[in-house]
Structures are given as structure tokens and as C-alpha cells.
Amino acid sequence: MSAPGRRGLAVVGGGRMGEALLAGIVRRSGPDDVVVCERSAERGAQLAERYGVDLADLPGAAARARVVLLAVKPQDVDGLLGLLAPHLDRDHLVISVAAGVTTARIEAALAPGVPVVRVMPNTPALVDEGMSVLSAGAHAADAHLDEAEELLAAVGRVRRVPEEQQDAVTALSGSGPAYFFYLVEAMVDAGVELGLSRELSTDLIVQTALGAAVMLRDSGDDAQTLRAAVSSPGGTTVAAIAELDRHQVRAAMVAAVAAAHARSLELGARRD
């Protein structure tokens, strides 16, 4: 049972991801029972005014909220936990979106038995199209995962994995938006080289990317099937794919994701 008077959510950290989650939650459920804890007074006041939520310091946030969402940079987690730990108990639920920070590391800084859920979100959460992946800590039950999933669903889709898969998730979906942006940059540049304005080239590619993503999500067909449907024998698409294959773009993408995975493992090992 929760402590008397303790309910709702405290968002600790008001950066881009913290604000994205705050905005989605407020849009879905309203600002009641939501507090923000932000070390920059100016930034905190900005968020409070923008979303109609209350500000609180760390002790006040822990006293008012049962769910504490840690949305700070990984390098700031240890210092934050040192300040926050005395105010948390087993009736709280701690949800962390700090990349690479394990539940074991967070649990070690808290009182015994505090449930912790680790989340790997990505930046499309800013437009409510994020992909968030959850993992349970040693003391988090299915009910805690259900609660975290409901919270993150405000900004997109949610999946669950064992925590040992989080580095792969980081490499694939956490860093994934950057891969698509990289490809879009190249395609826009190609359009400019062919004589189109940058504005028109960008418009063409952005809408094409959006439409292709919706087809992947909603058509029931996989990427290979959809690609084949566009690739008429002897046509322009086949010529383009042949050139991509000649440059081993598929192999380069697999290697890129593997490099991100290796780096995530390295960073996690350094932190722990």
C-alpha cells in the first residue's frame, strides 16, 4: 500500500526526453498529480507554466508522488540517487530512462526492496511516436511493469525484454532514429544534385519516409515484400537497389548497429 497522501508521478529532470514524457502524460491524463523536479529554477518554471504542473524539490517530489521517473543524463544518475535515496521506500516505483544505467546499479543506491524499471525510449517520443522498451529490476513485479507500460504508452509503443537485451535495443531503436535521419540527409542531397531545390527534395523524402513507415506498420507485409512490390524488373528501383548492393549498404548497416551495441556494452561496463 502507498503511504497516505502519496500518489501520482514525479518527473525528475526536464531535458528533452523528460519534457517529451511529461508532455505526453499531461496530454493523455492531465496535469493533476504530476510534479516536476528540475535543478534549473528557470527551466522548472518554464515547464510548470507550459504544462500546468507543480514544481517540487527532491524530498517534496518523493513525498507527493508514488512513481518517480528519472529522466536525467546517465552521468548525473549517481549524484541524483545519493540525494533521492533517503526519501524513497518500497512503496515507490522508480522508472529510469537513463541510457545504459542498469537496474542493479540503481537498486544498490536505494533502500532494499525498492522496485525499479529500466526503460530505453527514443526521440520520436517527442511527437508521441516513440518506441519504449521496458525491463524489470530484481524487485519489480508484473504490476510494476504494467504501470510503467501504461505511463510510456502516452508517447508511443511499448515492448518488454529481459534486461540483458537492453544493449541490443539501444543499438537498434534507441540510436535508430539517427540512422534514418542519416539516410534522409543522403537522399535529400541526392535530390539537390539532380537539380531539385532542397526544400522540395526534403518534402518529397519526408513524406515518402512517413508513408513507407505507415505501410510497414499497417499493411501486414514485411519490408522485403514491400520492397519487391516497388521493384519492377528492369526499372529504376532495381537499378538503385543494385547500386546499394554494390556498395554493400546492407552489410554496412548491420556493422553500424553492431558497433552501437558494442559501445553500449562498453559504456555499461564502465558505469557498473
Describe this structure in words.
- This protein has 272 residues and is an alpha/beta fold.
- It is built from twelve helices and eight strands.
- It has an eight-stranded mixed β-sheet with strand order 3-2-1-4-5-6-7-8, with helices on both faces.
- α5 links the parallel β5 and β6 (116-120).
- α7 packs across α12 and α8 (176-193) crosses α9 (198-218).
- The protein is elongated and about 65 Å long.
- The model has no long low-confidence stretch (mean pLDDT 93).
How much beta, percentage-wise? 5-15%
Please trace the helix and strand order, writing H or E for each element: EHEHEHEHEHEEHEHHHHHH
The major β-sheet equals: 8 strands, mixed
H/I helix tally: 12
* Shape label: elongated
Radius of gyration, in Å, reads: 21 Å
Distance between the termini: 32 Å
Query: Average pLDDT across residues?
Result: 93
Share of helical residues:
40-55%
* Unreliable stretches covering 5 or more consecutive residues: none
Total strands: the figure is 8
Output the structural class.
alpha/beta
Which features does this protein show?
single chain, 13% strand, alpha/beta, 272 residues, 8-stranded mixed β-sheet
